[in-house]
Amino acid sequence: MLGEVNVVILTEGSEKIGLGHLARCVSLCQAFESRGIYPHFIVKGGKIVWNFLSGRAFEVIDWTTNDNNLRQLLDDHDVAIIDSYSASLSTYQYISELVRVPVYIDDYKRLDYPRGLLINVAINAENLDYPKKEGLCYLLGGRYILLRKEFWDVPHRSERNLVENIILTFGGTDVGNMTARTLWLLKKNWSNCVKNVIIGPFFHDVDAVRQAADSKTHLFFSPPATQIRDLMFGSDIAVSAAGQTLYELARIGVPAVTVMVADNQANNVKAWVEKGCILDAGWANDSNVLKNIDNSLCLLCSLEERRRLSTNAKMFVDGLGPSRIVDEIMRAL
Questions:
Q1: Domain identity same for 108 and 193
Q2: Are residues 193 and 179 in the same domain?
Q3: Is residue 147 a contact partner of residue 325, using CB atoms and an 8 Å limit?
Q4: pTM across the whole model
Q5: How far is it, in rounded angstroms, from Cα 134 to Cα 255?
Q6: Residue 50: is its pLDDT beyond 50?
Q7: CA-to-CA distance for 173 and 155, rounded, in angstroms?
Q8: Which of 142, 259, 274, 285 can pair with 123 through a Cys bridge, CB separation 3.0 to 4.6 Å?
Q9: How far apart are CA 231 and CA 113, in angstroms?
Q10: At 253, which CATH number?
Q11: Structural domain range at position 179
Q12: C-alpha angle with apex 31: 170 to 312, nearest 5 degrees?
């Protein structure tokens, strides 16, 4: 019986780590919940976990440092899903010995993973030359992109003739104060546009963002996924960090100018650019990043260019990734 399958999700989320791991693990959790299976979370992290996982079963424990504790935590679980940048290979190996189906979410061939299912949702993941190993199966590429349920089934979005609305979303931590810096640029050169700004839970200098705002700027503090989705739908262009939000924008078809804020984003951004899905403004700490953003926005004044990016991006993200992954996990049991 499906309801008898016990699933545990081991991940991490904090100011230093960010919220991307939690967000994509929640999407898998939601796919299980839609089938009457309710995973239990074990999270290495801070206070943000309480808000992010409200209403779900979870424990906040540094599971990456104590194998003896893991045996007790994973007792009677059939499936363990691991999404971590800090857990060691020995921890992965130990978990793989404790459950029937270990599942690993990877971004850049971080480890030589043991037996199980390995997920990499980057659209170029099939080109990463993962090793062929007995007992290790791969779920690679855009078919498995992890999106929260609010982005699974979305209506058609049409492009307006003129750019009227720009959304800014730089993740939970706002690396390099990109939000305020970009908002000053928009205030100067794009003053006629509405600017909707997502403020994450770990922003340190909200006052700087407020100072850069004008009468057409609206700030949204840690909004729920439904509100983020609706804000995206109303946007003509997004200026965004190149993390999990990139997939949500692609699903809706919002033309995006991306800024890289973490090393693991580089290969994925390169692939999206090559597929004609986004415009890349470079790294947050580049001296010319604001100039690149401005130039990209100018290119996206073209309705034809916005339609091109939107159409290409939507081809790679259909919202069915979490369901496909759960299908594969259930088949492996």
A1: no
A2: yes
A3: no
A4: 0.91
A5: 41
A6: yes
A7: 30
A8: 142
A9: 39
A10: 3.40.50.2000
A11: 151-316
A12: 50
Q: Where are the beta strands (DSSP E) in 170-311?
A: 194-199, 217-221, 237-241, 256-260, 278-283
Q: What secondary structure letter does DSSP report for 145? A: -
Q: Give the total number of structural domains in the chain.
A: 2
Quick check: 194 and 185 in contact, CB under 8 A? no
Q: Are 275 and 260 spatial neighbours (Cβ–Cβ below 8 Å)?
A: no
Q: Which of 258, 269, 265 is nearest to 292 (CA)?
A: 258
Is the confidence at residue 7, as pLDDT, over 60?
A: yes
CATH code of the domain containing 112:
3.40.50.11190
pLDDT of residue 3: 54
Same domain for 75 and 134, yes or no, is yes
Q: What share of the chain is helix, strand, coil (3-state, %, to 5)?
A: 40, 20, 40
Q: How many residues does the chain have?
A: 333
Residue 159 in tokens: 């492009």
Instruction: Read off the tokens for 145.
Output: 């992109």
Which of 302 and 267 is assigned the larger pLDDT?
A: 302
- The two structure tokens encoding residue 89: 């290979």
Residue 202 identity? F
Collapse the DSSP code of 25 into the 3-class scheme (helix H, G, I; strand E, B; otherwise coil) and give the result: helix
135 and 254 share a domain?
Answer: no
> Do both 173 and 310 map to the same domain?
yes
Cα gap 196→218, rounded to integer Å: 5
Does residue 59 contact residue 44 with C-beta atoms inside 8 Å? Answer: no
